[in-house]
Amino acid sequence: MTAAPSGPAFSLHDIPFSTYGSWFDISPVVAEKTRAEDLHLVSHQNGMHGVLRLVPLDAATGERAETQVEAAPGLLSWIGAAGRVDLSYESPDTVRLRGAGMALRVGAAARTLTPFSGTYFFRDAAAGAHVFTSYETGRRYRVTVLRGTAADIVGSQALNGGERGLTVAMDADGLWEIAIEELDTARPAYTRAAAFDKIVEAERNAFADFVETAAPWRSAAYPAAELAAYVVWSATVRPAGFLARPGVLMSKHWMDKVWSWDHCFNALALAPGHPELAWDQYHLPFDHQDAAGALPDSVTHSEILRNFVKPPIHGWAFGHLRRRLPTPPGRAELAETYDRLTRWTEFWLTSRRAPGDALPHYQHGNDSGWDNATTFDPERAVVTADLAAFLVLQLRELADLATYLNLPDEVLRWTRTAEATQRAMLDQLWNGDRFAARGVESGDSRHSSSLLDLMPIVLGEHLPDAVSGVLAARIETHLTAYGLATEVPTSPHYTSDGYWRGPIWAPTTVLIEDGLRRAGRHRLADEISTRFRALCETHGFAENFDALTGEGLRDRAYTWTASSYLLLAEAHAGRGVTRGADGEP
Fold first, then answer.
1. Which residues of 88-112 are buried (b: 16+ CB within 10 A; e: fewer)?
2. Cβ contacts of residue 2 below 8 Å, gap of 6+?
3. Taking CA atoms, which of 111, 147, 379, 510 is between 20 and 30 Å from 353?
4. Alpha helices in 189-274 (DSSP H)
5. DSSP labels for 446-512?
6. Within 10 A of 168 (CB to CB), how many other CB atoms are there?
7. Strand-strand pairing, 102-108 and 49-58
8. What whole-number distance in Å separates Cα of residue 343 and Cα of residue 289?
9. Interatomic CA distance for residues 405 and 399, integer angstroms
10. Do 105 and 120 form a contact (C-beta atoms < 8 A)?
11. 369: helix, coil or strand?
12. Which residues lie across from 106 on neighbouring strands?
């Protein structure tokens, strides 16, 4: 009954096992920076909640069996001396498990049941199954025995504290099989539609089809491409709750949301092979745009946060998205996007410009996406050059869209505003050597050692050559063996696991690489791309990375990191050969 692994193998300590469309995964990671001894069914409906604990048992002793866990797309296995347990997704809300030579304990992760929390357990006589109901997720988890028997049933209909669960025991042939479903209130009793091996085959084929269209350019030169595609594929959820479209969560660990700049990188990576999914990723936060035109900070199943926003990189992103889609968007699609981008831009021009000020400001580091960058140490509410640069690109994209939509007055309006904003950025924040941030309340201008101060390189060809040259030289001082440190490593404020005060991040890498390349500074762009790709190929797709060791930090299965790798690898493959130093102006 063994099934050979197919596709890239991975550690569940880093990447959860899941499937496209599912709101749950199988992982030992049950909370932020928290790993359990056993694998859990972890749901992301109403937050991140470990619901069921899955424990292979020694058939002779009934104690936890010593096993090795192996995972690859389509198949998760616990392998022990006496046998094995295999798990695969039959559908986004159903997993099938089978065992040989070992039993399996399925138990509630929460031991305490109150009127408002915990898990209730009972036998559903109508369905002939056992059901766990979770207050935390608001869903039910139905266990149907297909082969073998349910034994050692504990805590059925019990209240208060205590263990709740059952053991799936082997039949006379030493085998068993079950299905576990995540469901709402009720559905017909589970019936087996396909053999287990067919389910595994279907899952592997589904992933193979996805990766073939997502990364048809992949080769031995890009050894992490398939795993990157798996991180994105397996973090995609079907529409539910506040998500009216399929959504790529940032992770199926604890970063299980869609933040309103993270989504852009997933959209860009998906565009050539999965254009509809890419379009949905771009527009998902815009579905929740408020009356002022602002996008939410983040969206997930049961939560929309509006206490902060994220930077306006959406004009930059949409310009690239339009060019990457295999079929150009139609007039209606462009008109809808134009309206949404217009409202988002006007939010920054009205709600985030002080009276008489030509430049917008952030109210907190969180608004920039660089939450705790040293730029924000003296004051949180600041006018920064990165914000102005992103807004200039967005204004230029609006002018391009207005041209296509035959809105000549709007073309003139956006073009003039873009030119005025860039002129103000250079006049007010550039001193000939670097950009400064200016306090909204104090009016004081200050420099920092943060890479954030160098982000105006995103303007690329729109920057004066002398300015882009100085920025490129300063960017190079942030380049370690692994990539771009967000704080110069020689800075007294540099912290190895300091979030935006040192570690390497994917989105800044992509934005800077693109800006340098559009400014004609190919040598440095090539070097940044090469080092970041090597970092991912060695250390995976973490939320961020130690800039001096390359170690993955925080959430270890982050989709914008995986998508950034795919973008840079695809672009490198498309160039054929890396440009030499003579490509530098």
1. bbbebbbbbbbbbbbbbbbbbbbee
2. 84
3. 510
4. 196-214, 225-234, 262-270
5. E--SBGGGGGGGGGGGGS-HHHHHHHHHHHHTTB-SSSBBSB-TTSTT--TT-TTSS-B-HHHHHHH
6. 26
7. antiparallel
8. 9
9. 10
10. no
11. coil
12. 54, 166
Angstrom distances, CA of residue 233 to CA of 246, 264, 320: 11, 16, 21
* Amino acid identity for residue 289 in this structure: Q
pLDDT band at 429 (very low <50, low <70, confident <90, very high): very high
Rounded (5°) CA angle 187-109-145 = 45
438 beta partners: 383, 445
Residue 273 DSSP code: T
The predicted pLDDT at position 7 comes to 83
The β-bridge partners of 25 are 42
What sign for the dihedral angle of Cα 392, 397, 400, 401? negative
Burial zone of 364 (CB within 10 Å; 0-12 exposed, 13-18 middle, 19+ buried): middle
What is the Cα–Cα distance from 269 to 236, expressed in whole angstroms? 14
Q: How many helices (H) and strands (E) does the chain have?
A: 13, 26
Q: Exposure of 384 by Cβ count < 10 A (0-12 exposed, 13-18 middle, 19+ buried)? A: buried
- Please say if the pLDDT value at position 98 is more than 90: yes
pLDDT in tens, 139-179: 999 999 999 999 999 999 999 999 999 999 999 999 999 99
Residue 457 corresponds to which amino acid?
Answer: I
The residues facing 430 across adjacent strands are: 435
Distance CA 558, CA 85 (A): 28
Q: What's the rounded Cα separation, in Å, for the pair 268 and 4? A: 33
Q: Encode burial over 529-559: b for 16+ CB neighbours within 10 A, e otherwise.
A: bebbbebbbebbbbbbbbbbebbbbbbbbbb
Order of strands across the sheet that contains 139-147: 67-72, 75-80, 84-91, 94-100, 175-183, 139-147, 129-134, 119-124
Residue 3 confidence (pLDDT) above 50 = no
- Rounded CA Rg of the chain: 26
Backbone angles phi, psi at 378, to 5 degrees: -70, -45
Q: Are 165 and 178 in contact (CB under 8 A)?
A: no
Which residue's entry shows tokens 């287990």?
196
| Contact in structure between 112 and 118 (CB atoms under 8 Å) | yes
Determine the residue type at 298: S
Q: Could you tell me how many residues make up the chain? A: 585
Question: 177 forms bridges with which residues in the sheet?
Answer: 98, 147
Which residue is it, tokens 């399996």? 104
Q: Residues 87, 89, 90, 94: is their CA dihedral positive or negative?
A: positive
Q: Tell me the HSE value of 414 on the side-chain side, using a 13 A CA sphere.
A: 25
For 271-296, the pLDDT digits (tens) are: 999 999 999 999 999 999 999 999 99
Other C-beta atoms closer than 10 Å to the C-beta of 507 total 19
Could you give the 3-state DSSP secondary structure of residue 518?
helix
Longest C-alpha distance within the chain, in Å?
82
The residue whose two tokens read 């300590």 is 13
